[in-house]
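User: For a reading group we're discussing how well predicted structures match intuition. Take Cytosine permease. Before you show the prediction, I'll give you the sequence so everyone sees exactly what went in.
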Amino acid sequence: MSTQTTAAPSQLPDYLASATPNPSANRAPWYTNTAPTFAGVFLWFIFWNSVSSSGLSTGGLWPSIIGIVVAALICHFLFYLAPGLLGMKTGLPLYVVGTSTFGSLGGLIMPGFLMGALQFGWLGVNSWGSATFLKESFGGGDGMFYALCVIWAVGAAFVGLKGIQYVAKVATFLPIIPLAVLIIGLVLFGGSAFSYKPTAEPAASGGAMTTILLIVTYIVGFFATAGAAGVDFGTNSRDGDDVKKGGYVGILAAIVLTAVISVLVVAGARASGAIDGTVVNMTDALATKLSPGFFKAVMIGLTLASFPGACFSSFIAANSFKTVMPKVNPLVSVGIGTIVSIALAVTGYAGDLPSVFGIIGASFGPICGAMTADYLLNGRRWSGPRAGFNPAGWVAWALGFFVGVMPNLHKVESLANAIPDVPAAPVVAYVVGFVVYAVCFKIGVKTPVLDMPKRIDA
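Assistant: Thanks. Here is the predicted 3D structure of Cytosine permease, as structure tokens, for the group to look at:
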């Protein structure tokens, strides 16, 4: 099997033959698209509210901060940069660019369908978190929680189906709320943070390195799908400088800002005696200082600010399903996905954030790794779609996913002792995907490249 073009344009699937690059006239500076959109992802309170749960008690403040910085660097340089540059250079969306790694037919499933399907997992997390906090704010019971899960998921799916212009209308000013809450928390507790001491014995808990690895696992797992979606963000970038600066500000700086502030607030609240070592959520720390009325307003505001994210997940899912299943009515495909989201939310499975982030990291870690290897091996350019199912990509993904999902398998009692522990599993999954794809590529385990006339090569 070689990389030479061996097929005529007529042999391209319709979705590839009709794909048109985003022209340069439609692109804009990084500070108008990539940076604010990615920053909005990390301003979501579900991300930063409990980041301290990944190691503040065991390793202390500085290992937690180091873990956040390391995770931010990994997210930008490993998971985002190559996909973002591919999007910028081709002007084509993820489900097209991914065909060089997974094949012209395989790309419909990976990353096309998988990206859409996992968005309903995110919708479930968003619905669970929003319903939980609204219920607590209004002092409701289980009935209110279930009703809110349904209303939230259905409402977000409806807006997502309507189109990106409707998603944008609900997303313009709401991110200001979580930013203001983070600043309030820093003012209240930041001064006491550096006097905090971990509550668990370092020797027994694994200490600083364990804390760093836990933080990296949490953050990278959260970011993995957004890293692959960097292709779509890249299509709106004018040049490589836009791609890089958008990542520096929207990913690297945004992760450090939001996560470090949250950890400082929890550490400061513990050091000052406002909360004990069992409390990991920043919002719980705020509850000890703010008046009940103001705290309720804060929680309602944070919840409302998360609604655009739920709409955006639904929008991505709808677009993915329209592409990979064009003959299926989007109301049906998105409707089924929304039901799954509701089920994940009401049963509480969506609230097990380490497991959710672990599965997402295991799924998209090897995708980002294989795509990065493909980009570098083709001279930092897009080769074009490969025929059928490209085995290099599929073998790389399968092995990477297996390694990445191992920590989740530990929860199965019969497998707990048989499955080795994998630290920072989403990162290891990325490395496995990268290495396996590179090996397969070098030894020729790949399908031929198809000719694609409507493309640009920047």
